[in-house]
Amino acid sequence: MAQPQSVDVQHNGPATEAAGAGSLTSSLPTREGWWTPFFFFQGFWLTPQAVKSVTLVQARFQPRADDIILATFPKCGTTWLKALAFTLANRSRHRVIDDKHPLLTQHPQDLVPFLELPNRALHLVGELEALPSPRLLSTHLPYASLPFGVGTSSSLGCRIVYLCREPKDVVVSMWHYYKKIRPDFLIEFHKAFELFFEGFSLYGPFWEHFLGYWNQSVIDPDRVLFLKYEDMMADPTKHVKMLAEFFRVPFSEDEENAGVPEEVVKLCSFENLKGLPVNSTGKADRIGGLLMENSSFFRSGKVGDWRNHLTEEMANKLDCIVQEKLKGSGLAF
Ligand code: PAP
């Protein structure tokens, strides 16, 4: 591992809690390999920008008991979960079959705000505080790094949906995504695979990320709903109903009879969302300083695409580390 090094952390306006972030990163282990050095912060690899925004979120975010947090490791189906959750939670305001439904004109990523995005964290109090309850929020933060009150098992604790995915598909999705959004950062697939395998990827080690939420879902299943992308793909309607129950807006008998759960599945399906002009054209800066195509979040949307990218040896190697790291937890892929 490379020697710790300092990074220049810019401070903006009243975000004084970030003042310690520069000195904080200077004392953190750091490693190169991705487009910028990552820092090992609270047990996970983050960009300097992410260290800064996570610190801000932890200092400033005011959780509400009725907040619902959508938590994911990157490339595990965040966009899909945001679309489903938004549609379910807001269906009394926005009918699922309606040519004015927000999903038809807004990118799913924009309908549920991330807690820790750099440009958002700086306006955390203003933007997130202004949202009416119950708030629907999303995060890539590991369980242990959630701001106090989100992660605690108390009446203050928010409800959390965690979505994870077969790691072999995650690494493939991640590599394609970086290739698309960072064309100036060239990394061969086998190199990205090695880093991911070592647990060195954004918000990695992925197994620690999975386990943090998994363990909590075992202890407190009413508060943490743990889902897998593959299970959702296999039976989306069942999962849509499960999510509606978890959000405390279960489908009525009339809705069930009218096929509303199936309509939610259709509206949020990969094929439908990918084909919409708002998702297939245009660019936006969603992570602070990087303009990316809206289509970057819709690639193949398949289970098992890893077969087109990993050799048998690579697949076995990743399977072995996953088995070893998850051993005894009850979680398996
Ligand atoms: P993020 O974590 O960076 O926000 P995320 O949405 O998790 O991104 O990653 C995109 C993945 O979800 C892509 O997977 P792929 O590369 O294997 O194709 C994307 O295609 C997939 N995805 C996006 N929308 C949907 C959807 N509606 N249904 C299923 N998969 C989807």
UniProtKB/TrEMBL annotation:
The keyword Iron-sulfur does not apply. It comes from the Eukaryota. Keywords: Transferase. InterPro entries: P-loop_NTPase, Sulfotransferase_dom. Residues 66-330 form the Sulfotransferase domain. GO terms for molecular function: sulfotransferase activity. It comes from Eleusine coracana subsp. coracana. It is an enzyme of class 2 (transferase). This is Sulfotransferase. Belongs to the sulfotransferase 1 family. Pfam families: Sulfotransfer_1. Residues 1-26 are annotated as: Disordered. Its EC number is 2.8.2.-.
